């Protein structure tokens, strides 16, 4: 379809919403982003941008800014949580890719995308909380909390886990609690922090850490299996004592980090199905979803941001190359749904592998150690399908 001059309304100014807004604007579309917050703030925590996500940022012209704002990663270290002993090391420099593997504060990535989008002519409309999306008429209709309504020629739902746009296309979602909760926090980094991911694994729990902002901060995400339910929200606080007790059997190094946390964020981890329907053409318009609205995933493969970036690029380029909206949506879905479903499934498996106990844990760690020692490239090559895939090369 002709994107130059095409009015596009996007719900959500997160990674997926701003990336797709920038991609549309580069094609000359007239883009408006609806964001419920009253400002783009310094919120969130760390993101890992693997080479497949970095390829999209490069194609959008943002890699110089990303390089300046991020820490370039060199390795993933798998560590036995209770003892602190190394289990296996994945050397990320073996990827040998120009895009690299980056650690980036979410707020910094959002800021880069927002600045680029506004420079490209995108209109960012703040304090615009969407309460519902209707597909009953010839065009998608968006209802806002202030009582107003917007008809959209082309509506893009980048509205996250609790997406009204996904609900309009697929009905109410039915996620289920995984029996896991996660804490996140930032602490000052110690001098000489290495540019590596550390995954400290233990029975029923694990902790991931890596540096941010030039090595001045240490990002921490800690996950525990539990029966008690927690809300699926990024805005809940928890008592730091609960976090410290959950990892009291871990190494002194990990306990030392946790002792510095005063007010961690807590959220429950829920498993969502990949959306059955990703878009729909109406008689005078259409609607499409991407990112967490289409395929929410557990944080055990660090691919949420990268998949959102891939979605954004593929969606816009697919629309630009099809005259018919129905055909474009079908092509976009065919390109993205199988890949994101595989990422979701892989993340689910990692959750189990990190939390092994008893004999299974001993066998698993011994196997990882042997592979890491005698075939160090093998562990990383298992993810060639993920990291070496460049969606920008297909268009």
Plain-language structure description:
With 395 residues, the chain is an alpha+beta fold. It has a domain of 237 residues: 3-Layer(bba) Sandwich (FAD/NAD(P)-binding domain). Helices cover 35% and strands 26% of the residues. The protein has twelve helices and 20 strands. The strands form four sheets. It has an eight-stranded mixed sheet. Strands 8-2-1-12-20-19 form a six-stranded mixed sheet. The chain is globular and about 60 Å long. The model has no long low-confidence stretch (mean pLDDT 92).
Topology diagram in text:
Layout: E1 7-11, H1 15-26, E2 30-34, E3 46-49, H2 51-59, H3 63-69, E4 71-72, E5 75-80, E6 86-91, E7 102-105, H4 106-119, E8 123-125, E9 130-134, E10 141-144, E11 149-151, E12 154-157, H5 164-170, E13 176-188, E14 196-202, E15 205-212, E16 217-225, E17 236-237, H6 240-246, H7 252-259, E18 265-271, E19 279-281, E20 286-289, H8 304-320, H9 325-354, H10 358-374, H11 376-381, H12 384-387
Parallel strand pairs: 1-2, 1-12, 2-8, 5-14, 12-20
Antiparallel strand pairs: 3-7, 4-7, 5-6, 9-10, 10-11, 13-16, 13-18, 14-15, 15-16, 17-18, 19-20
Helix pairs in contact: 1-4, 1-8, 2-8, 8-9
Can you tag this structure with a few keywords?
alpha+beta; FAD/NAD(P)-binding domain; 395 residues; 35% helix; six-stranded mixed sheet; globular; eight-stranded mixed sheet
Structure, briefly:
It is built from twelve helices and 20 strands. By secondary structure, the protein is of the alpha+beta class.
